[in-house]
Write a structure and sequence with these properties.
mainly alpha; two-stranded antiparallel ribbon; elongated
């Protein structure tokens, strides 16, 4: 969007330049020498050197009688304004995305704390059920269920960490 805006400003400057005359200047210089072997007369010559300078200047200007140039300038200015608005819209969109990603990270941090507490509680529950099973008070299915509950909480905690990293990467890309 920024490149479009800068290009539109250049188009405005180019359109405004039509108000003024155009002057071109293309100087040239050449040097030549005739051969000393040429026989122009009965006496020998050493050749003649000559220099040629060309200084062409061209001036052109078309008056804006019917407003064509004025209209082209206005059109270019309106295009530049549209490009500036597009640039602002892009900037606002990126800022909104940045804010959204920031709050997503904050939410993931809170969820991570809750899941860390859940993992710790599920580990204590597994240890208790395992102890009861080892003592012969509980059955093995309770140990398996507690282990599955712990692994599920650990998996959820890992997924939250990965999602947080993705939001963090998105912020880094925006910045």
């Amino acid at each position: 969007a920024f490149e479009q805006y800068m290009a539109a400003r250049a188009v405005v400057a180019e359109a405004r330049s039509q108000y003024w005359p155009t002057v071109t200047f293309n100087p040239a210089w050449s040097r030549s020498k005739t051969s000393g072997n040429q026989r122009v007369s009965s006496t020998a010559t050493t050749g003649a050197a000559s220099s040629l300078w060309i200084l062409p200047v061209d001036v052109s200007w078309a008056p804006d009688i019917w407003g064509k140039i004025r209209n082209e300038v206005r059109q270019a200015e309106y295009s530049a304004q549209v490009s500036a608005a597009d640039l602002q819209l892009e900037k606002l969109t990126e800022q909104a995305s940045l804010a959204n990603f920031y709050f997503e990270i904050r939410g993931q941090d809170m969820l991570q704390q809750i899941l860390n507490q859940t993992v710790a509680a599920d580990q204590k529950a597994l240890d208790a059920v395992q102890g009861a099973y080892d003592a012969g008070v509980s059955d093995y299915i309770s140990v398996v269920e507690a282990r599955n509950t712990l692994r599920s909480a650990q998996s959820s905690a890992t997924n939250v960490g990965l999602l947080r990293a993705q939001y963090q990467h998105a912020i880094a890309v925006l910045l």
